[in-house]
Predict the structure.
Amino acid sequence: MCASKRAQVLDGSVDIALGLRGAEGDRFPGTSLIELPFLVQDSSSGSRALWQLYTGGALDGEYRDYKVLALFVHDPGLIHTKEKRVETLADLKGLRLRAPNNTVAEALKYVGATPVILQVNEVMPAVQRGEVDGIVTNWANPLPDFNAHMKKHADTKFYTSAFFVLMNRARYAGLPVEQRAAIDELNAGTMAAWREGLRPVSEKYVADLAAGKFPAARETYRRLLELSR
């Protein structure tokens, strides 16, 4: 098992760490909620929701000992199996499946599967030893020889994993004022300023289309904004 990134930040072994919430066991329980099945549709909206949850104060208690630089999730993961095709929840019964965290493990147990919690570096050795029948992970996970072993794929938005970027609070406090301000500005959402800065371009483009080739441009653009939130 890899050393706890959270613990390394807390004891000052490192100043900043990127970590996987699931690798921290039962730490950050509020954050773990976003890992529940079928809650997150994509990494962008899921990450935005998690960050807004944090900035709104809902997660203050579990991060009070750290300077939080980022919280985010990956695109939804799915179920990959060596032999059995999974099409319904009932098909999961009896399968030994790699789970990335306790949240996903609870869901797998509920439907009769046997979850085996493994971090990324442990997954393929377990597959090669025949200890699991499948893997719950996302497409972007760079597992060596994955395609040689996983032949069936149930492409569901089954879960996501949460990640954190934490900084040692004392180390942050010891930075010059201007450096702390730069970090805080990034945390406050620099992209919002970019979006507002380019708003006139978008509005003009929509107005030109509405006046000419696409009269429904304003309503269509408004609908796109709603759908992309």
Notes: The mean pLDDT is 91.
